[in-house]
Amino acid sequence: MMRKFDARGKNAVFTTLVYGLLGVTLILILLPLLYVLISSFSSKHEIVTRGFFLIPHEWVIDAYGYLLSNENFKTAFSNSVVITVVGTLINIVFTSLMAYGLSKTWLKGRRTLNFIVLFTMLFSGGMIPTYLVVRELHLLDSYWSLFLVGAIAPFNLIVMRSFFQNIPPELEEAAKMDGCSELRLFWTIVIPLSMPAIATFTLFYAVHNWNTYFLAILYINDSTKWPLQVFLRQMLIVSESSMENQAGSFEFGPAVKMAAVILTALPLLIVYPFMQKYFNKGMLLGSVKG
After folding, report:
1. Of 4, 103, 145, 155, which shows the fewest CB atoms inside 10 Å?
2. 233 and 106, same structural domain?
3. How does 224-242 read in b/e, with b if 16+ C-beta sit within 10 Å?
4. Would you identify the family this protein belongs to, as annotated (predicted)?
5. What is the C-alpha to C-alpha distance for residues 16 and 9, in angstroms, rounded to an integer?
Protein backbone atom coordinates (compact mmCIF):
# COMPACT_ATOMS: atom_id res chain seq x y z
CA MET A 1 0.00 0.00 0.00
CA MET A 2 2.84 2.38 0.85
CA ARG A 3 4.47 1.76 -2.55
CA LYS A 4 1.18 2.48 -4.34
CA PHE A 5 0.76 5.67 -2.31
CA ASP A 6 4.33 6.77 -3.11
CA ALA A 7 3.78 6.07 -6.81
CA ARG A 8 0.54 8.05 -6.81
CA GLY A 9 2.25 10.89 -4.94
CA LYS A 10 5.09 11.00 -7.44
CA ASN A 11 2.64 10.97 -10.35
CA ALA A 12 0.65 13.79 -8.76
CA VAL A 13 3.80 15.88 -8.26
CA PHE A 14 4.93 15.21 -11.81
CA THR A 15 1.52 16.10 -13.21
CA THR A 16 1.46 19.31 -11.16
CA LEU A 17 4.91 20.28 -12.43
CA VAL A 18 3.93 19.58 -16.04
CA TYR A 19 0.73 21.63 -15.81
CA GLY A 20 2.59 24.39 -14.00
CA LEU A 21 5.25 24.52 -16.71
CA LEU A 22 2.61 24.51 -19.44
CA GLY A 23 0.73 27.29 -17.64
CA VAL A 24 3.83 29.48 -17.40
CA THR A 25 4.65 28.83 -21.06
CA LEU A 26 1.08 29.70 -22.05
CA ILE A 27 1.26 32.98 -20.14
CA LEU A 28 4.60 33.88 -21.75
CA ILE A 29 3.11 33.23 -25.20
CA LEU A 30 -0.24 34.92 -24.67
CA LEU A 31 0.98 37.99 -22.79
CA PRO A 32 2.71 39.69 -25.75
CA LEU A 33 -0.22 38.81 -28.02
CA LEU A 34 -2.67 40.20 -25.50
CA TYR A 35 -0.63 43.38 -25.19
CA VAL A 36 -0.63 43.86 -28.96
CA LEU A 37 -4.40 43.32 -29.08
CA ILE A 38 -5.11 45.72 -26.20
CA SER A 39 -2.73 48.35 -27.59
CA SER A 40 -4.54 48.30 -30.92
CA PHE A 41 -7.67 49.51 -29.12
CA SER A 42 -5.80 52.24 -27.24
CA SER A 43 -4.91 55.82 -28.08
CA LYS A 44 -1.43 56.91 -29.12
CA HIS A 45 -1.11 59.13 -26.04
CA GLU A 46 -1.91 56.28 -23.64
CA ILE A 47 0.57 53.90 -25.25
CA VAL A 48 3.36 56.48 -25.11
CA THR A 49 2.69 57.67 -21.56
CA ARG A 50 1.71 54.42 -19.79
CA GLY A 51 4.12 51.95 -21.36
CA PHE A 52 3.04 48.39 -20.62
CA PHE A 53 -0.61 47.87 -19.64
CA LEU A 54 -3.35 45.29 -20.18
CA ILE A 55 -6.44 47.42 -19.54
CA PRO A 56 -6.66 50.77 -21.35
CA HIS A 57 -8.35 53.77 -19.81
CA GLU A 58 -10.28 54.35 -23.02
CA TRP A 59 -11.24 51.82 -25.74
CA VAL A 60 -11.00 53.27 -29.26
CA ILE A 61 -11.10 51.76 -32.75
CA ASP A 62 -9.50 54.69 -34.53
CA ALA A 63 -6.46 52.64 -35.54
CA TYR A 64 -8.60 50.01 -37.29
CA GLY A 65 -10.66 52.70 -38.96
CA TYR A 66 -7.52 54.37 -40.24
CA LEU A 67 -6.09 51.12 -41.63
CA LEU A 68 -9.32 50.02 -43.28
CA SER A 69 -9.55 53.39 -45.01
CA ASN A 70 -5.88 53.44 -46.01
CA GLU A 71 -5.49 52.61 -49.71
CA ASN A 72 -1.94 51.28 -49.29
CA PHE A 73 -3.04 48.84 -46.61
CA LYS A 74 -6.04 47.66 -48.63
CA THR A 75 -3.85 47.18 -51.71
CA ALA A 76 -1.29 45.19 -49.73
CA PHE A 77 -4.04 43.08 -48.16
CA SER A 78 -5.57 42.27 -51.55
CA ASN A 79 -2.10 41.45 -52.92
CA SER A 80 -1.57 38.96 -50.10
CA VAL A 81 -4.94 37.35 -50.76
CA VAL A 82 -4.07 36.89 -54.45
CA ILE A 83 -0.61 35.53 -53.64
CA THR A 84 -2.01 33.12 -51.06
CA VAL A 85 -4.92 31.78 -53.12
CA VAL A 86 -3.15 31.42 -56.47
CA GLY A 87 0.18 30.38 -54.96
CA THR A 88 -1.37 27.72 -52.74
CA LEU A 89 -3.35 26.32 -55.67
CA ILE A 90 -0.18 26.04 -57.75
CA ASN A 91 1.73 24.53 -54.82
CA ILE A 92 -0.80 21.84 -54.05
CA VAL A 93 -1.42 20.87 -57.70
CA PHE A 94 2.26 20.57 -58.54
CA THR A 95 3.14 18.80 -55.30
CA SER A 96 0.32 16.27 -55.49
CA LEU A 97 0.94 15.45 -59.16
CA MET A 98 4.67 14.92 -58.68
CA ALA A 99 4.19 13.00 -55.43
CA TYR A 100 1.68 10.69 -57.11
CA GLY A 101 4.08 9.97 -59.95
CA LEU A 102 7.00 9.29 -57.62
CA SER A 103 4.86 6.92 -55.54
CA LYS A 104 4.65 4.50 -58.49
CA THR A 105 7.30 1.78 -58.39
CA TRP A 106 6.98 1.21 -62.15
CA LEU A 107 8.03 4.78 -63.00
CA LYS A 108 11.34 4.76 -64.90
CA GLY A 109 14.00 6.91 -63.26
CA ARG A 110 12.04 7.03 -60.01
CA ARG A 111 15.10 6.57 -57.80
CA THR A 112 17.00 9.30 -59.61
CA LEU A 113 14.09 11.73 -59.28
CA ASN A 114 13.67 10.89 -55.61
CA PHE A 115 17.38 11.53 -55.07
CA ILE A 116 17.13 14.90 -56.82
CA VAL A 117 14.19 15.88 -54.60
CA LEU A 118 16.09 14.85 -51.47
CA PHE A 119 19.20 16.67 -52.67
CA THR A 120 17.30 19.93 -53.17
CA MET A 121 15.93 19.61 -49.65
CA LEU A 122 19.47 19.47 -48.24
CA PHE A 123 21.24 21.83 -50.66
CA SER A 124 19.94 24.83 -52.58
CA GLY A 125 21.36 26.88 -55.43
CA GLY A 126 21.56 29.96 -53.25
CA MET A 127 19.99 33.39 -53.37
CA ILE A 128 22.13 34.97 -56.11
CA PRO A 129 21.87 32.12 -58.70
CA THR A 130 18.12 31.94 -58.10
CA TYR A 131 17.78 35.69 -58.54
CA LEU A 132 19.76 35.55 -61.80
CA VAL A 133 17.48 32.79 -63.12
CA VAL A 134 14.36 34.78 -62.19
CA ARG A 135 15.79 37.88 -63.86
CA GLU A 136 16.71 36.05 -67.06
CA LEU A 137 13.19 34.64 -67.24
CA HIS A 138 11.86 38.23 -66.98
CA LEU A 139 9.85 37.40 -63.87
CA LEU A 140 10.96 40.34 -61.74
CA ASP A 141 8.06 42.48 -60.50
CA SER A 142 5.76 39.57 -61.30
CA TYR A 143 3.96 37.30 -58.87
CA TRP A 144 5.17 34.36 -60.94
CA SER A 145 8.57 34.88 -59.33
CA LEU A 146 6.91 34.02 -56.01
CA PHE A 147 4.76 31.19 -57.37
CA LEU A 148 7.40 29.28 -59.35
CA VAL A 149 10.46 29.63 -57.12
CA GLY A 150 8.74 27.76 -54.29
CA ALA A 151 6.17 25.81 -56.29
CA ILE A 152 7.13 22.50 -54.64
CA ALA A 153 8.51 22.12 -51.12
CA PRO A 154 10.68 18.94 -51.07
CA PHE A 155 9.65 17.94 -47.54
CA ASN A 156 5.94 18.26 -48.34
CA LEU A 157 6.49 16.28 -51.55
CA ILE A 158 8.22 13.41 -49.73
CA VAL A 159 5.51 13.15 -47.06
CA MET A 160 2.71 13.29 -49.63
CA ARG A 161 4.48 10.64 -51.72
CA SER A 162 4.53 8.39 -48.65
CA PHE A 163 0.82 9.00 -48.17
CA PHE A 164 0.05 7.98 -51.76
CA GLN A 165 2.08 4.80 -51.28
CA ASN A 166 -0.27 3.79 -48.46
CA ILE A 167 -3.32 3.74 -50.75
CA PRO A 168 -4.27 0.09 -51.46
CA PRO A 169 -3.16 -0.87 -55.00
CA GLU A 170 -6.31 -3.01 -55.35
CA LEU A 171 -8.39 0.16 -55.71
CA GLU A 172 -6.30 1.38 -58.60
CA GLU A 173 -6.28 -2.03 -60.27
CA ALA A 174 -10.08 -2.26 -60.04
CA ALA A 175 -10.46 1.24 -61.51
CA LYS A 176 -8.13 0.44 -64.40
CA MET A 177 -10.07 -2.76 -65.13
CA ASP A 178 -13.17 -0.57 -65.50
CA GLY A 179 -11.37 1.52 -68.11
CA CYS A 180 -10.31 4.39 -65.87
CA SER A 181 -7.33 6.37 -67.17
CA GLU A 182 -4.40 7.30 -64.95
CA LEU A 183 -5.39 10.96 -64.75
CA ARG A 184 -9.05 10.18 -64.06
CA LEU A 185 -8.01 7.65 -61.43
CA PHE A 186 -5.93 10.33 -59.75
CA TRP A 187 -8.70 12.95 -59.64
CA THR A 188 -11.68 10.72 -58.85
CA ILE A 189 -10.19 8.12 -56.50
CA VAL A 190 -6.78 9.14 -55.16
CA ILE A 191 -7.58 12.79 -54.43
CA PRO A 192 -10.78 12.10 -52.40
CA LEU A 193 -8.93 9.48 -50.34
CA SER A 194 -6.06 11.90 -49.77
CA MET A 195 -8.04 14.90 -48.50
CA PRO A 196 -6.48 14.82 -44.99
CA ALA A 197 -2.97 15.04 -46.46
CA ILE A 198 -4.00 17.61 -49.06
CA ALA A 199 -5.71 19.76 -46.43
CA THR A 200 -2.61 19.57 -44.24
CA PHE A 201 -0.24 20.74 -46.93
CA THR A 202 -2.73 23.29 -48.18
CA LEU A 203 -2.52 24.85 -44.74
CA PHE A 204 1.29 24.67 -44.80
CA TYR A 205 1.49 26.34 -48.19
CA ALA A 206 -1.19 28.92 -47.34
CA VAL A 207 0.70 30.01 -44.21
CA HIS A 208 3.94 30.22 -46.20
CA ASN A 209 2.36 32.28 -48.99
CA TRP A 210 0.50 34.57 -46.61
CA ASN A 211 3.75 35.26 -44.74
CA THR A 212 5.73 35.88 -47.94
CA TYR A 213 8.32 38.48 -47.05
CA PHE A 214 11.89 37.84 -48.16
CA LEU A 215 11.06 36.69 -51.69
CA ALA A 216 8.74 39.66 -52.15
CA ILE A 217 11.49 42.08 -51.13
CA LEU A 218 13.95 40.29 -53.41
CA TYR A 219 11.82 40.02 -56.57
CA ILE A 220 9.09 42.67 -56.26
CA ASN A 221 10.28 46.25 -56.66
CA ASP A 222 6.91 47.79 -57.46
CA SER A 223 5.46 48.97 -54.15
CA THR A 224 1.90 48.60 -55.48
CA LYS A 225 2.50 44.83 -55.69
CA TRP A 226 3.94 44.42 -52.20
CA PRO A 227 2.17 41.87 -49.99
CA LEU A 228 0.92 42.68 -46.53
CA GLN A 229 4.05 41.50 -44.73
CA VAL A 230 6.25 43.96 -46.60
CA PHE A 231 3.80 46.77 -45.88
CA LEU A 232 3.85 45.75 -42.23
CA ARG A 233 7.65 45.89 -42.27
CA GLN A 234 7.44 49.45 -43.53
CA MET A 235 5.23 50.37 -40.60
CA LEU A 236 7.30 48.63 -37.92
CA ILE A 237 10.85 49.38 -39.06
CA VAL A 238 10.84 52.61 -41.01
CA SER A 239 10.59 55.72 -38.89
CA GLU A 240 7.22 57.37 -38.53
CA SER A 241 8.37 60.50 -40.29
CA SER A 242 9.50 58.51 -43.31
CA MET A 243 6.20 56.66 -43.44
CA GLU A 244 4.38 59.99 -43.47
CA ASN A 245 6.19 60.88 -46.68
CA GLN A 246 5.53 57.49 -48.26
CA ALA A 247 2.03 56.47 -47.23
CA GLY A 248 0.32 59.48 -45.72
CA SER A 249 0.10 60.66 -42.15
CA PHE A 250 0.18 57.85 -39.60
CA GLU A 251 -1.63 59.94 -37.04
CA PHE A 252 -2.16 57.14 -34.50
CA GLY A 253 1.39 55.79 -34.53
CA PRO A 254 1.88 52.76 -32.25
CA ALA A 255 -1.81 51.82 -32.16
CA VAL A 256 -1.91 51.63 -35.96
CA LYS A 257 1.10 49.32 -35.96
CA MET A 258 -0.51 47.04 -33.39
CA ALA A 259 -3.77 46.99 -35.34
CA ALA A 260 -1.86 46.08 -38.51
CA VAL A 261 -0.29 43.10 -36.71
CA ILE A 262 -3.73 41.91 -35.58
CA LEU A 263 -5.31 42.28 -39.03
CA THR A 264 -2.35 40.48 -40.59
CA ALA A 265 -2.70 37.46 -38.31
CA LEU A 266 -6.52 37.40 -38.28
CA PRO A 267 -7.17 35.46 -41.55
CA LEU A 268 -5.01 32.51 -40.49
CA LEU A 269 -6.54 32.50 -37.01
CA ILE A 270 -9.99 32.25 -38.62
CA VAL A 271 -9.07 29.49 -41.10
CA TYR A 272 -7.03 27.21 -38.84
CA PRO A 273 -9.84 25.94 -36.53
CA PHE A 274 -11.79 24.68 -39.56
CA MET A 275 -8.78 22.72 -40.85
CA GLN A 276 -7.42 21.48 -37.55
CA LYS A 277 -9.04 18.01 -37.70
CA TYR A 278 -7.64 17.41 -41.20
CA PHE A 279 -4.28 18.80 -40.13
CA ASN A 280 -3.91 16.40 -37.18
CA LYS A 281 -5.00 13.37 -39.22
CA GLY A 282 -2.87 14.23 -42.23
CA MET A 283 0.32 14.64 -40.23
CA LEU A 284 -0.04 11.12 -38.84
CA LEU A 285 -1.12 9.32 -42.01
CA GLY A 286 1.72 10.64 -44.13
CA SER A 287 4.40 9.43 -41.76
CA VAL A 288 3.49 5.72 -41.59
CA LYS A 289 5.42 4.51 -44.62
CA GLY A 290 8.70 5.88 -45.95
Report:
1. 4
2. yes
3. ebbbbbbbbebbeeeeeee
4. Belongs to the binding-protein-dependent transport system permease family.
5. 11
